[in-house]
């Protein structure tokens, strides 16, 4: 059982780091193992906290992104993650699935209509117009999650960030929002540690390998990877919505 969960964490985080939406793999797969849903949610948030920070740190150490740029955005995903975790029980799963579909369809439309232009230099400062988006996506991650990473990748690349910088900031925001959500789940004592540790170990390995792969991916390849994952995610959410099963947080 532990090795199955380890592999789920590895595959989900490998895909999630490159294009976002690793949760669309890990959530249904973990449900098939019979783990209770509240334990799955907590385990995913904890493992994402560990794995996303590790991949962010690799890119930070490699000077793909700067500390001060990351610190500027820190309050928004942190508050978003806390907000999302607090209101998670007030919205139905069906409502959140519909919200996810709307967001992803809009992001996919933007991605096809206007190709991101990669800038080689650092943006002098993160545009303030991004702050509400970063807070909103962080709240969505705390509440539900599927598509969060893909949405962030598209948002950053549309601002002119390179693919690697987009990966770095996406992983940083995932770390911060998941840290906020995990703090509450720890307080509520819903973490099943045997599942969580196995998932986190697989996620950590998947994050490290995917960062190495990401360094070899060109902008055009990255765009099509993200588009493909977005389309698959939309199809999965549509199936979930109409099948009545739903995708869990």
Automatic annotation (TrEMBL):
Keyword terms, alphabetized: Cell membrane, Membrane, Transmembrane, Transmembrane helix, Transport
Annotated source species: Metabacillus herbersteinensis
Residues that span the membrane, as ranges: 70-88, 95-113, 133-156, 168-187, 223-242
Source organism, top-level taxon: Bacteria
Membrane topology, record value: Multi-pass membrane protein
Main location (coarse class): membrane
InterPro entries linked to this entry: TM_pro_TauE-like, TSUP
Cell membrane is among the record's keywords: yes
Localisation: Cell membrane
Family designation: Belongs to the 4-toluene sulfonate uptake permease (TSUP) (TC 2.A.102) family.
Protein's recorded name: Probable membrane transporter protein
